[in-house]
Amino acid sequence: MPPAAAAGSSIRSGSSLEVNTVVIDFSLSNEQEAIRALAHEFAEREVKPRAQELDRMADPAAIFPWDIYEKGNRLGFNKTLIPARYGGLGLGEVETCLVVEELSWADGGVGSTYFVHDMQLLTLDDHGSEEQKEKWFRACAEDPEERFFMSLPWTEHGVAGDLNPRDFAAGRVNNGPILPQEWAMRQVVPPAQQREMTTVAIDDGDDWVINGTKRFITSAGRSKLLLTSARKGADSPDMGMGLFLIPADAPGVSYGHIEDKMGQRLMQNAEVIFENCRVPKADELKDYMTRPRVRGGDVEVAAVFNGISRRAYEEALAYSRIRYKGGARIVFHQAVQLAICDMAIKVLTARLLMLRAAWQNDQKAGGTAHNGMAKVYCSDVAVDVTDKAMQLFGGYGYMRDFPMEKLYRDARLGPIYHATNEMIMVGQLTPWLASMDTIY
Ligand SMILES: Cc1cc2nc3c(=O)[nH]c(=O)nc-3n(C[C@H](O)[C@H](O)[C@H](O)COP(=O)(O)OP(=O)(O)OC[C@H]3O[C@@H](n4cnc5c(N)ncnc54)[C@H](O)[C@@H]3O)c2cc1C
Question: Is there a shared CATH topology between the 30-147 domain and the 298-435 domain?
Fold first, then answer.
């Protein structure tokens, strides 16, 4: 028996075709279960009772519940992915997903605040220099205020036709419609010439000088560190981009419009404006564009939507067990049973895919597209499950004093942000599938 197989039991030992059983254990370890239970208990006690009221606040600038986040950070929720040698908890993506899932069970916006922060910790860990990690991981782990979050200013206004999307929405005139015969024309700009990113870093001695505006940025105005993308040089294409570590209160950084969102209102999203912002060259993530990205936070965003799905399923099941209609509790009606089973199957498969992707990341086995699959599937499931759960509440599902309308609004963000599910399928999953013999 080859050494690698010694731990398993051979079922055709000695033959040339030797098959060994491999133990697949789907249970959480005691430590993982303890972390999950801690996050759930916090979510139930601190987040759930206040989420609906905070979600209703009209002014998006007034919502961000620092007291909730500070308590969560004291428990270590913003430090799970920081290696222990920098003062963090040194946990993996499996444990981080369990935390994000439980927080999102209580409120998707709280879960998303943590997921976006976690995504930046992964990028810093994978692409940062030793000095950068020592400085910023420690700043997070030892923050006396327990307010350390990171943001990713990447997305920009872009254009709708020749207009900014908000100018378009305000009814300003475009430069003319596309003619129907042009729809069929495939217009692909070569990557070397693509310039959708307008934020530019200009080389100036020991510094980069950054100008530009970013949009929709999670935790902007609340976070302490910005991991900012910018094209290096006025003439460089999007591919000639760099990623820069910029303190949130650095000279030349300001914050603009705070978004008034449909859901996930307990996270804050705002514009970040860079005006002649000087960034020392030592603060660039040097190998970000040259080393392939392995851990991109896709699986942590999947965790947000698994939390929302599970909560919707639990609420709908509980309601269907007490609601009496048509001569029975509605849970005894077959149509309701079909919906409940469909939700349960999707909630479980989504969670398995998330855990599989997170576990693979923790094995450092190299990049896999299971991360992207988890993001797409889990966010689609959340939209589907919250929709079905709302249906089981009948008219009450549509009422704001019941939980379903918020869960539905919170879920709907999933296929849109991080990158749209279409973008992930086109840009990440299809090239991967085309190169693989098996999807397992
Ligand atoms: C609540 C929220 C939080 C966010 N947080 C952050 C953040 O922290 N940092 C950050 O940088 N960004 C953030 N974003 C931005 C988010 O990542 C983008 O909105 C998202 O990537 C889509 O980009 P867009 O809005 O420009 O849409 P567009 O790119 O204009 O997409 C419009 C439509 O075209 C489709 N489309 C676009 N390109 C392709 C393609 N190549 N192939 C097929 N279809 C395509 C899209 O799927 C979509 O249906 C956030 C957005 C929201 C709503």
Answer: no
pTM of the model: 0.93
The answer regarding whether domain 30-147 maps to CATH 3.90.1150.10 reads no
Q: Which atom of ligand 1 is nearest to the CA of 267?
A: 1
Contact 270, 257 (CB under 8 A): yes
CA 176, CA 138: separation in Å to the nearest integer? Answer: 53
115-139 confidence digits (pLDDT tens): 999 999 999 999 999 999 999 999 9
Distances (CA, A) of 281 to 70, 205, 232, 356: 32, 9, 12, 38
**DSSP code at position 220:** T
- Alpha carbons 353 and 271: distance in angstroms, whole number: 33
> Where do the structural domains in the chain lie, given as residue ranges?
30-147, 298-435
Most ligand 1 atoms within 8 A of CB, residue of 63, 110, 119, 155 to mutate:
155
Question: In angstroms, how far is the first alpha carbon of the chain from the final one?
Answer: 25
* Residues in the chain, pLDDT under 70: 1-22, 159-163, 173-195, 291-294, 366-367
What CATH number matches the domain at 298-435, 3.40.50.300, 2.30.30.760, 3.40.50.150, 1.20.140.10?
Answer: 1.20.140.10
Ligand 1 centre to CA of 156 (Å) is 9
Mutate to test the pocket of ligand 1, among 120, 152, 216 (most ligand atoms within 8 A of CB): 216
Which residue type, as a one-letter code, is found at position 148?
F
Distance 61 CA to ligand 1 centre (A): 22
Report which of 268, 292, 270, 310 is spatially closest to residue 97, judged by C-alpha positions.
310
Pocket test for ligand 1, best of 423, 428, 430 (most atoms within 8 A of CB): 423
Strands 225-232 and 200-204, bridge-based pairing: parallel
Enumerate residues lining ligand 1, CB below 6 A: 116, 151-155, 158, 216-218, 261, 269, 413, 416-420, 422-423, 426
Which atom of ligand 1 has the smallest separation from the CA of 165? 30
